[in-house]
Design brief:
Largest sheet: none
Radius of gyration: 18 Å
Helix content: 55-70%
Low-confidence stretches: 106-113
Oligomer: single chain
Number of strands: 0
């Protein structure tokens, strides 16, 4: 198989290979948060994380498009979810850029290893007071695309395949 064909959203993908591949993408997305660690951001900034997320979002879209083609459905909803997820990543990058530049020591906290936990720590600190509750709600809203994409992946994986059109 041509390596460039793996980058194309055209084609079909069965249930089993889809489930395995999408699990790898979600795992890689979780592990990519290591790129937000202070040693990485200190040397290369947020660019490695942004690049990794762009690649993972494209892989997610390709997998879902191929699976949806296998079920005889359109890919519009997958594109929409990928765009919303991309916007969430942009928002996360903007927040991390502000947090890491305003934190004493340039953001060298070990909690940066997992950005979501780090942001919840900041949002729930005693220094924020009542606005901390609003920020926690905002962070939960920011995580909605993750929940939506997981649900969509499960839904996509459970759709039955249809025979290819002649």
């Amino acid at each position: 198989m041509n390596a460039l064909a793996l980058l194309s959203p055209s084609g079909r993908l069965g249930r089993g290979p889809f489930a395995l591949a999408v699990l790898v993408v979600y795992l890689a997305s979780f592990v990519s948060q290591v790129l937000l660690a202070a040693p990485v951001t200190g040397r290369a900034g947020l660019w490695p994380f942004a690049l990794a997320q762009a690649v993972l979002i494209w892989a997610w879209l390709v997998l879902h498009a191929r699976r949806l083609h296998d079920t005889g459905q359109g890919i519009g909803l997958a594109i929409g979810i990928a765009i919303v997820y991309l916007l969430m990543i942009v928002l996360l990058l903007l927040i991390m850029a502000v947090v890491t530049t305003t934190e004493p020591g340039g953001g060298a906290s070990l909690l940066q290893l997992f950005a979501v936990r780090y942001l919840f720590k900041i949002f729930t600190s005693e220094q924020l007071g009542a606005i901390g509750y609003w920020l926690v709600g905002f962070a939960a809203l920011m995580l909605a695309p993750v929940v939506i994409s997981l649900g969509f992946s499960i839904w996509t994986a459970t759709r039955p395949s249809v025979p290819p059109k002649p």
